[in-house]
Here is the input.
Amino acid sequence: MYHIIEFDPKRSTEMTKSNIEHLTINQININDLKQLISYTAKLKYLNTYLCDRHHDITIEFDQFPTLTPSLESLKLQLNSNVTMINLECLLKQLPKLKRLELIGRRIHEHYFCGERWQCLIQMFLNQLIKFLFLFDALFDTRFDT
Here is the structure.
């Protein structure tokens, strides 16, 4: 069964908590996602295209609300403006995550640091069972001489 809901971050104070457990959103930026998650405490599955318009917007770790403790599966498609720092801030708030799928095109090379991912998973995502990582990179082709 599918329901269509409208989410307007400008009117989010008028919204009540939702019982939604599975949610697919065509497109959302990280600030609106932060707001939406605060109203979906029972959410178990989220699939969305996460997009930001500017590289220079950084979400501080403590600016995220306590995210849904029940989220077990997250599928994110990322645009090239979503920074690794913002993605880490989001993932650090999801300790019950068991499945994580990240898909992106023309992603910055910071996403390709294996040690960074290892630390993030070991420290914050220790219940993770499946991690799918499908990216192509946007590397700086200039060489220092």
Notes: The chain has three helices and five strands. The chain has a mean pLDDT of 77. The longest strand covers residues 99-108.
